[in-house]
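Hi,

Apologies if this is the wrong queue. I'm a grad student, and the batch job for Cell division protein FtsX from Epilithonimonas pallida produced an output file that my downstream script rejects. I'm not sure whether the problem is my script or the file. Here is the sequence I used:
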Amino acid sequence: MPKTVDDFNKSRLRSSNITVVISISLVLFLVGLFGLILINAQKYSDYIKEQLVVEAYFDEYLDPRDSAKTLKFQEETFTKIKQQNYVKQAQYISKQQASVLAKKQLGIDSDALFEEDIFPASVEVTLKPEFVDPAKIDGVVNQLKAIDGVKDVVNDNQLTIDVYNNLNRILTWILAFSILFLIVAMVLINNSIRLKIFSKRFIIKTMQLVGAKRRFILMPFIREALVLGLIGAFIGILALGGVWYYFTSQIGTPFVQDTDQYVILLFIILLVGIIITVASTIFATWRFLRSNVDDLYYS
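Support response: The file is valid. Your script probably expects a header line. Output copied below for reference.
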């Protein structure tokens, strides 16, 4: 228990700083958590879109007895398809492979129901996620059909539209909640800082009354806010990293899947912690610098 007024003030100041740091770290931890959810939801959305493949069937006008010429022709067409800017991955499926896949899908173990190699050779095209869009998919299909050697292109348009709309709807809601929570985070951190500055309103006004310039009064508070923001952000990032490491180890996924996006998220957390803390300190301090002495008792 403090024995002097000075000891009491120091104890109260430490308690106030600890409260602000804890508030900042908790809020930034939750902001980072929403950021991780948004990043991984986008990755999952891209993964789902990549499962929507387009089948491009080869033109079979060549003499089937000239297999060497047919294979060379198909290889040239396959190379052209892979070179398209909207193609992420292309897999060649021969007639033999098509027959095996058909038997597997139908649950047939023998060739009794149909002859071998009745299915045409094709290319299974996986599009880049940004092209799995109802507004773009028809153009992609037409471009594939225009490639020399492609006879037909099959795509389930309705399935593509349904998946695209549902995924976009989910991502929109997650983004909206993330923005809303970021606003709430700003308000909570701002309130914590305002309470801290409120407890020093008489010191601020006393310094002003004895002739101290506003910049001179502001600088110590800004430096302290910068330190508190950095400490709070650092603790929040550590807590976020610990929780994310535990989660990824439990489900067996890599801790870091996209270094660039994770670094950007950490930078945003750090920036939010510093900017909100410093800005709130400046506004709260400036308010008492502009107020009258009598207003300090009713603020």
